[in-house]
Amino acid sequence: MGKASRRKQLDEQRKKFFAVHGDGRSEQDRANARVMLDALQKKLEDDALREDGKLHLKNDT
């Protein structure tokens, strides 16, 4: 069995396991992870806009 097909088989096994057993995290942990991911996504979007020169923030320092 090749490396790619073995990796694909392992990915399929993982997906089946999570479908049956869930990911083992509490609802609060999942909510916290979602909040952190949303904040990271917003930061990445802001950074990309800033690099493009389309976002001008006023620094109050």
UniProtKB/TrEMBL annotation:
It comes from the Eukaryota. Residues 1-30 are annotated as: Disordered. This is Uncharacterized protein. It comes from Phytophthora nicotianae P1569.
